Amino acid sequence: MKLTLTRQIRRLNRIRLFVFFLLLVFLLTAVFVIENLLVSTLVAFVISYLLNPIVNHLERRGFSRMWSTFWTFTLVGGLIGLTAFLVFPIFSSAILGLQQEAPKYIEGLSQLIEELEKHLKGFSGPLLSLDLREYAVSSLTQGSEVFFNRLPGFLKQTFTVMMLGPFLAFFMVKDGRAILRQTFNLIPNHIFETALSLQHQINHQLGFFVRARLFEALLVGLVTWLGLVLIDFPFSLLLALFAAVTNLIPYIGPLIGMIPALVIALVNGSSSFDLFLVFGVYAIAQFIDGFVLIPFFVAKIVNLHPVTVIIVIIAGSQFMGILGMIISIPLTSAAKVTLEAVYRHLTESRI
Amino acid sequence: MNNFAWANLFRSDSKEKSVLETLKQTHIFGSLSKRELQLVIQTIHVRDYAPGEIVFSQGELGIGMYIILNGKVDVMATDPSGSDEPRLVTQLESGDFFGELALVEKQGRRTATAKASVESSLIGFFKPDLLEILDRQPQTGSKIVLRLAEVLGRRLKQTSVKLTELRAETLKNSGRTKV
Questions:
Q1: Which among A72, B26, B34, B55 is least buried, having the fewest CB atoms inside 10 angstroms?
Q2: Nearest Cβ partner for A185 among B4, B9, B107
Q3: 3-state DSSP call for residue B78?
């Protein structure tokens, strides 16, 4: 009798686990197969992690979960919409300006490379025979053409993501806990506490990671923008946006973020003092990031190893192009946070 | 027994009412209003156990407490004298709760094994649930924490009274032996 019951319990547990994993596989397949759903889901996660504390705050003030979520999304959405409405004309004119001036910068850059090539040849003699200029000009011309040709399509995709992401995020914030609770009902009793504790830890760490990283990128972007505006540098908004996005990439991100501004300054024939000023703006942004933000807000985030960063960026670019490069680092960092939480939980529960 | 695996997924209204009643009668949630109890209902987990199924085992990490909605739970502990066979400490019934120490302990380990002796439904209330209530409704959370502290204090008092009695008994016995 006892043996039959044990068998029955085990069978039920196996069925529950099977259904749980089936559900998980189904969801993951849907996310990867349906167009734009992966990026929209990631955006939704980021939005929900950002807005959840505000919704909780409103709930503490006595509003229901439904109204707290509704007002938060309406107000924040309105604020972002208004900002986009104000910034979009400046942004689009900057893009148009860059498109018009792109040949000038490509030509200027090719001249810079040519000079560099001459110096290298002078230094190495006949040993080094490179044609960097032609390679750089062809790849830059091709790259900029592809970029500007693909921009409308990219913007269309961004528009879809920007509509779908917040929509998913709204329900994640409002009903996420209830959905999670229902899903957790499928987990067998003997691993229920472990699974719940693990989910709580991962959620907490990921929330902290997303908020800290975005806060960091936002401040770096803001400082860069202010600095570039102060020194009256062209394309300040675009360059600040680029610096903010690349700042999400550890180690090499800040360097990549600085390159376009330095190229613009060099091509425009800026004086050494102006070059120093441009470098200074980026250095101050990185100083604030490294000495103020990271120790106080981001210190708890474990960074990825430089080699991992490089490999992940290459893999990301091969799978999803530029978008892959941008999202590969946060995704890997999130995976690392998750694995660390799992590892810590497993090791601590065995002590 | 047929619907046992899926009973959690399709919880009926009557079960929810019974959950509300049970929570109301549980000391830890006793001071909460109906509205506050609704929030607790949104966070707790109703789990069904087959007869003989282990709720938790002695020595494993615990993160929360259980309230018996219906059924019976045997609480067993291995004898400190060294016997491997767990000894029945007590049998708990509907409305009783156990494992509450894990709600406040960091990396706390279960001091006994709990096993459903008949088909039972338990309300699980865990640390993440308590933290969620404290985050969303701090007033409700503090009421729960206060009652929890009361329960733990009472258990501590009982333990120290028992310890004093045991010490007195040991002293008495050793005195007798000396004589």
A1: B34
A2: B9
A3: strand
The tally of domains found in chain A comes to 1
Interface ipTM: 0.82
For residue B53, with 0-12 CB atoms within 10 Å meaning exposed, 13-18 middle and 19 or more buried, which class applies?
A: buried
C-alpha distances in angstroms, A25 versus A222, A337, B74? 40, 21, 38
Say what the pTM is: 0.75
Site from A55, A185, A199 to mutate, B interface, most B CB atoms within 10 angstroms: A185
Spans of all domains in chain B:
4-178
At residue A344, does pLDDT exceed 50?
yes
User: Do the chains contact at A192 and B52, CB–CB below 8 Å?
Assistant: no
For residue B97, give the 3-state DSSP assignment.
strand
- Using the beta-carbon criterion (under 8 Å), do A5 and B4 form an inter-chain contact? no
The pLDDT, as a whole number, for residue B7 is 41
Residue A262 lies in a domain: yes
CATH of segment(s) B4-178 = 2.60.120.10
Contacts of A76 (CB under 8 A, 6+ apart): A51, A54
d(CA A267, CA A228): 17
Whether A350 is in a domain gets the answer yes
Tokens of residue A92, six digits = 């689009």
Percentage of chain A modeled with pLDDT above 90:
16
Interface of A with B (CB under 8 A): 2, 5-6, 8-9, 12, 15-16, 56, 59-60, 65, 177-178, 181-182, 184-186, 189-190, 192-194, 196-197, 199-200, 348-349, 351
Domain extent at residue A277: 190-351
